[in-house]
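Quick one: C-alpha cells for this chain, please?
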Amino acid sequence: MAPEERGSAAWEDDIVHCYAGLAGLVARMAELASAREWRELPALEAECTALVERLRALPPVDSLKDPTRREQIHKLLQCIRFDQDSVVRAVRPQLCELLARIGTLSTSRNLDRAYGLGH
C-alpha cells in the first residue's frame, strides 16, 4: 500500500521516525569521527543510506499537515547538518592524508618501473 493510501498520520509518523533515526545515526558518526574511530563509519553510512531511500519513497516533508511535525523535522535536520559537518571536518584531513600517500606510492611505482627497480 502506498503511503498516500494509508492514513495521513501513519506516513507522517514514518517521516518523523526516519528523520529521527537519521539524526541518531549521524550523531553517532560524529562521535566516532571525533574520536578517530573509523571502523564503524561505513556500516553507519549504509544505515543512513537505507533511511534516505526509505524517505524518498514517502511523501515530501512539505506535504505534512501537522505544523508540529514539520517543526520537529526542521530541528532534526539542523542537528543532522551540524553533525554531518562535524564528520566532514574530522574525515577530510584523514582522506587528504590517504590521497597524498596514494599519490606518493603511485609516483614511487612509476619511478621503479621507469628505472627498472621494480621487484
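The CA atoms of residues 6 and 69 lie 18 Å apart.
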